[in-house]
């Protein structure tokens, strides 16, 4: 399962204010809505990818006491194409742009992130 782990808790309510819809033309990747639970521990991002086919799914961001995980929401589980993997990386890069002190500590998507590996 593609995933990205960040080194600290992300305040999802704060990020909801900073979040800007993501649009990439080729392949088409659109991340356009953010839904956060009342506790502020989970957010779902409504995502559309059109490459060889059309996929609608959610990216899940789970924030715990000492880390944040970005992954595909198991309830929608699309085929793991390059464009689907890139959508996870695009959301991560927006988070890192908003919070430059956060670092990626674990992932199986390094080639999509194009950032250096940080050891824990």
Kindly describe this structure.
There is one protein chain. By secondary structure, this protein is an alpha+beta fold. The protein has one domain. It has 3 helices and 7 strands, in the order βαβββββαβα. It has a 7-stranded antiparallel β-sheet. A hairpin with a 3-residue loop joins strand 4 and strand 5 (54-63). The two termini are 21 Å apart. The mean pLDDT is 94.
List the helices and strands and how they pair.
Layout: E1 3-6, H1 12-18, E2 22-24, E3 28-36, E4 42-50, E5 54-63, E6 68-72, H2 82-98, E7 104-107, H3 110-113
Antiparallel strand pairs: 1-6, 1-7, 2-3, 3-4, 4-5, 5-6
| Unreliable parts | none
Alpha-carbon Rg, integer:
13 Å
Series of H and E elements:
EHEEEEEHEH
Query: How many discrete structural domains?
Result: 1
Q: Mean of residue pLDDT?
A: 94
Structural class: alpha+beta
Q: How would you describe this structure in keywords?
A:
120 residues, alpha+beta, seven-stranded antiparallel sheet, 3 helices, 7 strands, 23% helix, 37% strand
Put the structure in a nutshell.
This protein has helices at residues 12-18, 82-98, 110-113; strands at 3-6, 22-24, 28-36, 42-50, 54-63, 68-72, 104-107. With 120 residues, it is of the alpha+beta class. The radius of gyration is 13 Å and the shape is globular.
